[in-house]
Amino acid sequence: MGRQRLLQWLQIYSLALGVTSQRLVDGRVQQTWLTRAYTLIINALELLLLPGMFYLTAQYIEKTSVFQNLMPYTCYILYSVSYATIAYTVISRGKRDSAFLELERIVNRIMSQQVHQVGRSLNFIYCLKLSTMIILCVNSTVLSFMVPNAKNWNVYLITFLFQNSMIIPVIATYRYFLALWHIACCYQSINCRVEELVSSFKMKLPTRSELEEVHRLWSQHSMLGSCTLRMNQVYGVLLLAARFDYLTFSVINQYWGMLFMFAIETPIYMVMFGTFNYCIRFIDFFLLDDMCDLTIKAQNYPHHVVTEGNWFKEINAYIMYVNTSKLDLSVCGLYTANRIRWFKLFGSIAGSQSKECGQNTMALPHRHAAQWQRRDILCASQSVTSRITKKPQGPGVVTNATGSQAQEPL
Known about the structure:
Strand content: under 5%
Helix content: over 70%
Largest sheet: 2 strands, antiparallel
Number of helices: 11
Strand order of the largest sheet: 1-2
Structural class: mainly alpha
Low-confidence stretches: 352-375, 384-410
Order of helices and strands: HEEHHHHHHHHHEEHEE
Mean pLDDT: 77
C-alpha cells in the first residue's frame, strides 16, 4: 500500500509538471479532457517561459560567482542542452501517452489471465528506482531554497520553477522504465506458466485445453514483443536526448564540484548535498539500462525443463519461436541499451581519465626539472651581465645598461 501511494504521488507530480496527461486511479491510468487541457496549457507555458528562466538563472550565477569567466559558459551550455531535451519531451508527450495507454490495456488483459508473479530481481529494481525518483524530486525542491545571497522572493520563485523543470526528462524516462517493468512481469508470468505446463507433461499426455493454452501463451508472448518494440520506437529519440543531457550534466557537475571543493569557499553541507544528488542521478541512470537488460532476459528465457519431459509439436514450435525472437532494444539504431554496454562505456571513460592523470603525474617532475634548469640559465646570464656593467671606466664616463656611453654631468 505504501509503494502504491508513493507511485500515485509521483504520478500526480508528473501531471503537475506536464510530463503526462494521465492520472493514476485504483492502480490504472486514466485520461480526461480536463487533464489533457491542463497539460496542454502547462506545456505551452514551459516552452515559452523556460528560456527566460534559464537566462535569468545564468545571469544570476554570473553576478554572484567568483569565477565570472568560467561558470557562466558552463551554465549556458548545460541550460541549452536541458532546454532542448525538455522541449522535445514536451512536444512528443502525446505519442508517449497513447503508447502507454495501449500498453496498459495489453498488460491488464494478460495479467487477468495469468497468476501475477514478480521475481525478486524485478521487485528489488522497482523499489530502488522508485526510491531514486522520490529522492530526486525532493532534492529538486530542496535545491530551490539553497540559493546563495538571495534576498528577494522572486529569486526563490524562479529557482523553484527552474529546478522542477530540470527533472522533466528524468520523469519521462521513468515512465519508460515502468513500461519495461510491466512487460518483464508479463513475460515472467508467461514463463512460469509454461514451466508448470511442461512439468505436468512429464507424468501425462497434454489435454486439448492445455495445448490451446500453449497457443494462447504464444500469442501473448508475441503481442508483448510487438508492444515492446513499439514503446522502444516511441521513446527512442527521448532516450538519446536524455542520455546526452545526462552526459552534459555529469561533466559540468564534476567541474562545478571541483571548483566548490578546492577553489571556492563553500559550506560543507552544500558540497555533501551536491555529491549525494549526483550519486543518486548516477544510480537512477544505471537502473534504466539494467531494466532493459532484465526485459530482454525475461523475453528470451531458456526453458531447460522441456528436455526432461515429453516432447510435443506445440512445445517445439513455441521454444523455437522464443529462441529466434530475441529483442534488440536499440536507441535510434545507434546502440543497444543494456548493463554490459553501460559498464564498458563508463569503464573506458574512467580508464582514460586515470591514464591521463597518471601521465600528468609522471610528467610533473620533468616539468619542474626543466623549469629549474631554465631558472639556473637565467640567473647565470644575469650574473654575467651584472659583471659587465660593473667594469671600471674612465673619469666622467658612465656605462648604462645598454652598453652606450653617456657624459657625466659636471
